[in-house]
């Protein structure tokens, strides 16, 4: 980006054209993050809008400009498959980012809602943390649970 004109410079490249599977007509992806982890560039994006179909999806490539392949088990985070009338639901999970701690553990920070009834929220979108595990070279958020948890076991002193 040119610092004075604030205009992009260099060759424009489309990394992903619309979502994981265009034939399914997904709500366009947004909020991309690129991570260089070992031999791959990972492109992580929100997909599905910010309501009940919200999710986080992942792509990877050996080159930063692609081509990027989607993981066959996308999305790596969503709550859309769960009954929204379940007790104490966490819904609309997405817009995630990942961090690796000094001890090597991976965690995701993301937005989600806690409706008190139906689609009504007192607070709106809140920030959540969930563990990340790597499966066959792909990150998976909240891998040991169907539902996002209010708290997770950790090795940290509280």
Please summarize what this structure is.
The chain is 0% helix and 37% strand.
Essential attributes:
single chain, 158 residues, mainly beta, Tachylectin-2, Chain A, five-stranded antiparallel sheet, four-stranded antiparallel sheet, 37% strand, globular
Question: How would you describe the overall organization of this protein?
Answer:
There is one protein chain. The protein has 158 residues and is mainly beta. It has one domain: Glycosyl hydrolase domain, family 43 (Tachylectin-2, Chain A). The protein has no helices and 9 strands. The strands form 2 sheets. Strands 1, 2, 3, 4 and 5 form a 5-stranded antiparallel beta sheet that branches. A hairpin with a 2-residue loop joins strand 1 and strand 2.
SSE topology sketch:
Blueprint: E1 30-37, E2 40-47, E3 55-61, E4 69-70, E5 77-78, E6 91-100, E7 106-113, E8 126-135, E9 138-141
Antiparallel strand pairs: 1-2, 2-3, 3-4, 3-5, 6-7, 7-8, 8-9
GO molecular function: hydrolase activity, hydrolyzing O-glycosyl compounds
Organism: uncultured Phenylobacterium sp
Family: Belongs to the glycosyl hydrolase 43 family.
Please estimate the helix content: under 10%
Mean pLDDT: 89
The residue ranges in which pLDDT falls below 50 over 5 or more consecutive positions are none
Number of domains: 1
């Amino acid at each position: 980006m040119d610092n004075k004109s604030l205009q992009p410079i260099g060759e424009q490249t489309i990394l992903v054209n619309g979502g994981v599977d265009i034939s399914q007509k997904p709500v366009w992806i947004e909020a991309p993050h690129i991570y260089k982890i070992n031999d791959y560039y990972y492109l992580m994006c929100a997909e599905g809008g910010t309501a009940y179909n919200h999710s986080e999806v992942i792509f990877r490539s050996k080159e930063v400009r692609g081509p990027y392949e989607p993981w066959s088990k996308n999305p790596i985070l969503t709550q859309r498959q769960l009954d929204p009338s379940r007790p104490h639901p966490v819904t609309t999970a997405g817009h995630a980012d990942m961090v690796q701690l000094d001890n090597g553990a991976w965690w995701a920070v993301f937005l989600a809602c806690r409706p008190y009834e139906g689609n009504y929220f007192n607070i709106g979108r809140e920030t959540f943390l969930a563990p990340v595990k790597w499966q066959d070279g792909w990150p998976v958020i909240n891998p040991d649970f169907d539902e996002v948890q209010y708290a997770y076991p950790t090795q940290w002193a509280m």
